[in-house]
Amino acid sequence: MNRSTMHDPLHQPCPPFGTLLGAKQTGAAHLRRALPCQDALCWHWQSDAQASSLLLAIADGHGGSHYDRSDQGAHLAVQTAIALLRECHTAFPHPRQLLNTLQSDFARLLRRRWRQAVLQHHANLEEAPPPSEEAPLLRRYGATLLTVLMQEELVFAGQIGDGKLLRIPADGPPHEPLPADPNLLGSETHSLCSEGAERVWQSAVWYRQQEETLLFCTDGLSDSFVSPEEFHRFASSLPPLLTEQGSQTIAQHLPNWLDRYSHEGSGDDMTLLLLHPMLPKGV
User: Fold this and answer.
1) Domain span at residue 262?
2) 21 Cβ partners below 8 Å, 6+ apart?
3) Structural domain tally of the chain?
4) Residue 190 is assigned to a structural domain of this protein
5) For range 11-38, the mean pLDDT
6) DSSP output for 178-204
7) Is 281 within the bounds of a domain?
8) Percent of the chain's residues with pLDDT above 70
9) Is 181 inside any structural domain?
10) Is the pLDDT of residue 186 over 70?
11) Which CATH number do you get for residue 180?
């Protein structure tokens, strides 16, 4: 299964990994200015007798006058990432070989294919060849990206930019396997549109913990909290709610939650994905 655009809440059992739920909402500031949502997401789940995998990608277009096509850049980013992850997963069925390839080659291949997708999108719109200077054109599509490939034993995560990924254990504080770059100040972020973007790509690998909840979000949500500690407290509150109220109920609440956080917080677009280890009854 694969989704690249979504405003309705997502609720999808993905055995053996758990239940995937989420929502994407246009930010309050963008609604006031009649601007499109700059966030994008894409996912793919596969389970058969041979192997199971879950691929996730979220992206956040930069917005603003210099990045006037960044909503499209974000969509191209998640589509490119999922397609490339699927190719790698098919070409390298052995987990260790796959992870070695992802850590050594994925960022370079991703940047190259995203660039090609941007140039093709421009050509389709303009019906003209790309400009001699690519950098200004690529900047118009600038976006961040967070992506995950999950197997039954191992998890690979990669990121460029300021999205958040949290591992939330059943009993303990959340952990960020991809911490923020300490060299960036304020709202600065790395971007797929930057020359040499692959050099600032972050990645992490860990053994999958069956009782662990994973949270993925764009920075519109995390920036709506007064501190990282408050954001982590919010994240820690979610697994008990999912267990007590059920993932279907929580999924229906997510759009309203994101609307409220955007209006009371950052005003930015928001995307939130949760992977909870419990599956609905009967699955």
Assistant:
1) 2-276
2) 9, 10, 11, 12, 247, 250, 251, 254, 273, 274, 276
3) 1
4) yes
5) 94
6) SPPPTT--TT----TTSTTGGGG-EEE
7) no
8) 93
9) yes
10) no
11) 3.60.40.10
Among candidates 147, 152, 148, which has minimal Cα distance to 16? 152
**CA 28/CA 122 separation, integer angstroms:** 29
The segment with the largest mean pLDDT, out of 12-16, 90-94, 176-180, is 12-16
Q: Which two tokens stand for residue 153?
A: 């034993």
Q: Which residue has the tokens 């909503």?
A: 71
Residue at 88 is within a domain = yes
Q: What predicted TM-score, i.e. pTM, was given to this entire model? A: 0.93
Check residue 279 and give its pLDDT. Answer: 87
Is 175 in contact with 220 (CB distance < 8 Å)?
A: no
| Token pair recorded at residue 108 | 């370079």
Over residues 129-153, the pLDDT tens digits come to: 667 788 999 999 999 999 999 999 9
d(CA 139, CA 136): 5
Residue 92: which residues within 8 A CB-CB, separation 6 or more? 98, 101
* Radius of gyration (C-alpha) of the chain in whole angstroms: 18
